[in-house]
Each structure stands twice: as structure tokens, then as C-alpha cells.
Design goal:
By secondary structure, the chain is mainly beta. It contains no helices and eleven strands.
């Protein structure tokens, strides 16, 4: 089974940027889409961004469009989330996830394996 490990979280001031990485290891699916989700205290885990296996298609939550960019490097088995213009509302634990099918999806229920999460804190 594939294992996912997120990294790159931390503390940043409002307006700043962070780049999250998610490295996959172990046995993976043949053509997996990848996604990023986040969960703030007292809130449900929410969709952030997703990318198809080929990288040709991406999907973003309205709240992050124009600020966040998802990308992947299949040769490195890694997916990234570049976060710019961060605001306190972006504070959350960010999780990457893998979907066994190649098309990008915004639905939590369509993902099969999850990472442990990385904390992102944006100060005002």
C-alpha cells in the first residue's frame, strides 16, 4: 500500500507563501490522482485542490483559486501545493490524499489513502 508523507508546513505571516510537499512511497495505484484537503479546528475536512494523474487537469476550491497551485512530479512520486497570499483563514492541518482513479476529484469519499497532515498557521 502507498504511504504519503506531507512536509513544508509552518508558521507564516499573512500575505506570505508556503510550499507543501507530499511524497509517496511503497506500492501505489497505477494511475492515481492526488488531492489536498485541510481541516481547521472545529471544522470538517475540506477540499483544497486536486490534480489528475497526468497533471493535465486541476480542480480548486473557490476559496483558494488564484492563490494556490497544485502540481506533481510523477518521476519523484511527489505532489506539491504552492500557497501564496496566505490569510489567517488558511490556518489548518493540510492533508494530501491519493485516489485510485486518474481523474481529479473534490470529494473526500473518493480518496483511498491519506497522509498524516502538516500544520499551516498564518498569523495576522
Amino acid at each position: 500500500q502507498v504511504q504519503l508523507v506531507e512536509s513544508g508546513g509552518g508558521l507564516v505571516q499573512a500575505g506570505g507563501s508556503l510550499r507543501l510537499s507530499c511524497a509517496a512511497s511503497g506500492r501505489t495505484f497505477s494511475n492515481p490522482a492526488m488531492g489536498w484537503f485541510r481541516q481547521a479546528p472545529g471544522k470538517e475536512r475540506a477540499f483544497v485542490a486536486a490534480i489528475s494523474w497526468s497533471g493535465s487537469s486541476t480542480v480548486y476550491a473557490d476559496s483558494v483559486k488564484g492563490r494556490f497551485t497544485i502540481s506533481r512530479d510523477n518521476a519523484k512520486n511527489t505532489v506539491y501545493l504552492q500557497m501564496n497570499s496566505l490569510a489567517p483563514e488558511d490556518t489548518a492541518v493540510y492533508y494530501c490524499a491519493v485516489r485510485r482513479f486518474p481523474r481529479a476529484s473534490s470529494s473526500r469519499d473518493e480518496y483511498d489513502v491519506w497522509g498524516q497532515g502538516t500544520q499551516v498557521t498564518v498569523s495576522s
